[in-house]
Amino acid sequence: MIRPDAAAFRTACGQFATGVAVVTARARSGQPVGLTINSFSSVSLDPPLVLFCLACEAQCMAGFDGADGFVIHVLSAEQRALSARFATPDADRFQALDWQDGPCGPVLPGALVRFDCRRHAVVDGGDHIILIGRVEAVSVPDGATDPLLYFRGGYRAIR
Fold it and tell me: 36: which of 17, 132, 133, 143 lies 20 to 30 Å off by Cα?
C-alpha cells in the first residue's frame, strides 16, 4: 500500500460506480447555475436530508454559495447529453434548454428523480464544500428508465 497522491486517489475513487445528477440553483443575482455531479448521497430520513459536494474552484461556486436552495436531478440513461452540457466549462448551460423556475431552483425536464431542497448546512470538505439540503419535495415520474452511471472515467449502462 502507498499513500495516494491526488491522481492515484482519483483513480481509486473511479472504481466506485456512481449515478450521475445535475444540480441547479438560482444565484442571488437571479442567474440560474448548475453543474453535473456524482457526489450525491442521502444523509437522513428524519428530517429528509441529502448532500452533494462542490469544488471550491468551481465556476458556479458563488452562485451556489449564495443560494437558499437547490434542485438535484438524478439523470436517466437517455440524458447523457444533458450531463455533458452541465459538465462543460464556460458553457451557457441553460441556453436553449427547456427549464422552469421552481421554488428551490431551476427545474430540468425528464429526470429519473428530482429532489427540491432548502439549504440546511454547509460543511468544509477540504478542496470542496459539502452542501446539505433538507428535501422539501421529491418527484418520481412514472415510466422510469435505467439510470445514467459513471465508472472508471466514463458513462456506463446497466447490462
Answer: 143
In a domain, 155, yes or no: no
Q: CA 46 to CA 6: how far, in whole Å?
A: 35
CA distance 29 to 150: 33
Alpha-helical regions (H) of 77-145:
80-87
Q: Would you say residue 145 lies in a domain?
A: no
| pTM for the model | 0.91
List the grid coordinates of 100: 422552469
Q: What is the mean pLDDT of the chain?
A: 90
115: left (phi over 0), alpha (psi -120 to 50) or beta: beta
> How many domains, in total, are found in the chain?
1
Please report whether residue 74 resides in a domain: yes
* pLDDT tens profile 52-82: 999 999 888 989 988 999 999 999 999 999 9
| pLDDT of 1 over the 70 cut | no
H/E element, 44: strand 41-45
CATH of the domain at 105: 2.30.110.10
3-state class (DSSP) for residue 135: strand
- Cis previous bond, 47, omega within 30: yes
The boundaries of the domain holding residue 62 are 20-140
